[in-house]
Batch of 2 targets.
Target 1
Amino acid sequence: MARLEDGAIDPGALLAGFCAGRSDVGAVVSFTGLCRAETDGRAVETLTLDAWRGFTEDGMAALEAEARARFDLIDLLTVHRWGEVRPGQAIVFVAAAAAHRRTAFDAADFLMDQLKTRAPLWKREDGPDGRRWIEPRASDHADAARWKTETDQ
Amino acid sequence: MPRVLLFGAFADVAGWREREMEGASTEALVAVLSEHEGLAERLARPGRMTVVNKVVVRGDVAVSTDDEVAFAPPVSGG
């Protein structure tokens, strides 16, 4: 399931809820992305995430569908913030459940790489040096391309 | 007239999110949008996303009066 949240994300509560009541799962891997107070030497006071409600959720769900098609998963959860986020707050939470750990690790890794470069969200950092819109770095594209290369082999 | 939506830096630079605009194709709309100097430079950068009626399109696509056309910079989730 993929969803956008306009309020604070509690990664611990999300993980506890995701794990609760499961007897078919041997491994859950989660990832939480946090807002940093500094990027590239610039102080960040606020991170603002722009989204297109409906379209953004559909895009996130499509990435989850790719992960499910690629890995033998029991469940997936993607929760992404939109609106204003402060340093220290969670931006994104991903959890993957599988029978065994390697599948869960790989699926969470894959899904995050895809979210960074393909999820329809737009990030802006505001700080004392002004505002700056963020685009994926070359390293983000390289991370996402790892999976393409493996598919092509 | 097609309804045009802007996201991310495009909306920030233009100063608006949504409006109706004259234009028979996506590139015709880009040409009108590019009359705004700050937007012209950003629209010309690689990786621009163009979406017609919630479907991502490539190249110049004809649009009609009831269409919803969105333009956005490269995405940055996660």
Target 2
Amino acid sequence: MFCSVPGFPRCMEMLCLKDIAPAAQNNINTQFILLDKGRANLEGGQTKTCLALVADETAAVHFQFWGDECDAFKPGDIIRLSNGIFSYNRNSLVLRAGKKGSIEKVGEFTMAYVETPNMSEIKWVPDPNNSRTYVQEAVISAYSRVFPPVL
Amino acid sequence: MAANLLRIATHEAENQLALSLRQAFLLLESNLRPPFPLTIPTSEEYQVLNCAILYGILTQPHHAKTHIKHLHAVVSDGYAFFVNLLVQVTNELLEKLVDSARNQLLWVTGEMVDVSAVGFDALLVSLLRQVVGGDFTDGNLWLCFEVATLFLSKWDSLLEEEPMVLTSGLYAFLRLLADHCRVSSRNSKLEALVRLEIEFCLKMLREQFHLCLKVGRDVIRLLQDLHHMPEFQAVWRDLVLNPTVFGTSGFLGIAQFYSTRTSSRYFLLRIPPMMETHLRFLLTQVKLGGQKRHQAWFASKYLFSPDRETLICDIVRFICCTHHPTKEIIQSDIIPRWAVIGWLLKFCRKNYVEANAKLALFYNWLFFDERADKLMDIEPAVLLMVCSVPKYVEITNSLLEFLFLLVDNYDMEHKEMITRGVLSSFNCLISKGVIHTFDVLTSSGVIFPLLRERLATFLLGMKAGIAKELRPIGPS
């Protein structure tokens, strides 16, 4: 399933966040709005990282900013991710650009979103029929436990 | 080699409009120097050439005269396509343009006025909208100064070709002047700007009064904000005591302004295009209950710096009089206009800002005439009062109190007219079914007893049929 993004070139297919699953591949092209940003940390004492909550019309997920990405985006920014990866990083499941992918700001404000399901708050297990892919086993939390909804 | 048009932040996607202009320039760069090719371009080639010339003008100030001559030589559509490109650049890119390109944009706009290009009035309106109220940064004040200079220096051409664009200038500069003259720590640049704005507005009021009259009642609302300035005190005196001095036959007094509804496009003049997009998104896509993050982003972008709160009255005017939702939106779970206005009122820190915002909310109530006014202009205020009773009754009380304050004091000379307007508003809101009864306002125990009584007595006037005997307003 692909999300329709007004004004986005049809040549690049956009994945909806609800359809992403953990994988060791840099092949996720999607677009989302940045809802909230945590404080920046130094990962391994070397590179700055920053955990964030992002979402589209179908789902939310935790996103990890890396290096100069941490300061380049603010809540409300609409971000396009090219060749991103959704995988475990120090036991937490995050979406990120990774070394092969990239993110850029394509707009701001004009995007509707949902905060549940949160793809990072789902327990995934290897697919019994295809050990190379993961399937959803259980919902750990409907909403992000790191960035609770603003009521 | 093509010079940069924009300042691009890290991780910011390339802008499609800027990209297409740049590509056109790179494609045709060798043809942009004399001797110019004599072949007649196809319509597609013509458009690409226009894009290339525009990119050249904006990024090569030293060759701008050559580029504009080129444009004058090839133009075959009255500059319509070129001006439309300029409007797009102004709306989408002005904020990001490098300084030299901003200078060039203003210069080429003047050129377009000089040749009476098709659509130059829309270009001037786009520039007016980019001047942000309550923004005292150098870039914004520079733009304001340049646009005001343009309106004054091209006065005769504007008057002859597109006189209505002067009324847009009047609305914008009266409103900006109110912000600019309030700042106590004025520097010499701001002083010069204020003088320019005064000059333009007075020229309009003194020399082209018949045009000012066409803007309608909001001219008076804006003039009121300038009542402390000696230059405008004289205008006030003449409006009240000596209306014939304006030399507009048939003008007998302020009531003529009051009875003319100000067209919705004037309110857009104080809402920059991106803010308009964001407000319309909020009011058509964001659901009630899930609006908190969008509201917080809006506030941090547009309202957080201390002087920006004066924008609230402009936004309230836009929401009441320009953004009229469809029936589908009204019946949906999208956040209603009254809720957004209630939220905006909370940002008013200074008393005069709050009073101006409430006046903006009620302004069309005061002169409402069912035959000429629009129900949707007055709908948000009544819904805000009624819907706030259960949880935010202090809003209901303060709005109701303010409404009666307006009836009694806004303009004592026209108290009868205003009473009639407010009664007509209540009458119309009931008869058109916006609300079914005023019981919640007249009998709720949480409303101040004095206000409840006042409203009940006031509404008796409606029942007695006063509102139905609508007499013609204005000169008789």
